[in-house]
Amino acid sequence: MSETELARKLGVSRKCLWERRQRFGIPRKKSTAEEDDEGRRSA
User: Alpha-carbon distance 5 to 19, whole Å?
Assistant: First the structure.
C-alpha cells in the first residue's frame, strides 16, 4: 500500500501521516520500487 493510499484510508493527509510517524518513531516501510533502486546503486 502506498503512502497516499494509507493516508486516504486513515482519513488524514500524507503530511499528517508523516508527522505522526515522526512523533511516535514508527519507521516507514520501503516499497519494492525503492528497494530495487537501492540494489542497483550498490551493484
Answer: 16
Q: Are 10 and 20 in contact (CB under 8 A)?
A: no
What is the domain partition of the chain in residue ranges? Answer: 3-42
Closest CA to 17 of 2, 32, 31, 30: 2
pTM over 0.90: no
Cell 525503492 locates to 34
pLDDT tens digit at each of 43 positions of the chain: 888 999 999 999 999 999 999 999 999 877 665 555 555 555 5
Specify whether the CB–CB gap between 3 and 17 falls below 8 A: yes
Side chain identity at residue 41, one-letter code: R
